[in-house]
Amino acid sequence: NSKGDMLFVRAGGIQDEMQMYQYMAENDVLFSLSFGPILVDNGVLQHCDSYPIGEMDREYSRAGLGMLDDLHYLYMTVNHCNGQNPRCNVNAFAELMYSKGCYKAYNLDGGQTSEIVFHNVPINYIDFNAERTVTDIIYFATALPESEVN
Predict the structure, then answer these.
(1) Taking a C-beta distance cutoff of 8 angstroms, is the pair 50, 103 a contact?
(2) Which pTM does this prediction carry?
(3) Res 101: pLDDT
């Protein structure tokens, strides 16, 4: 929302377009994501037995966005590297996000879209050594001059 807070609405929580617009207005929603599942909600680790999108029990590269504190976020990926296999299922990924101190966390896509880029350079291994073309990104920036960023 406009204050930088992560808000969650579970599947089925909004029934129609009118409820969606009402929720957005009441909560000052600026943008939204739709994938999931929710990994950590208000400091409580969430367990997922099934989800309509993705393969929850299989070990894949994963990507997630977590909130550590007001305006403090953690974007994390779990990827394999050079034949190693640190991939995980969704519940193991939730435990990792929780162990890093996230009091809210949300699963995003995985595999070839689980990429972190810093100063135009990918900093993690991309599955199959080939990025998947995507149209959406999560971009973090600061309005502070570079000399004041630490």
Answers:
(1) no
(2) 0.81
(3) 97
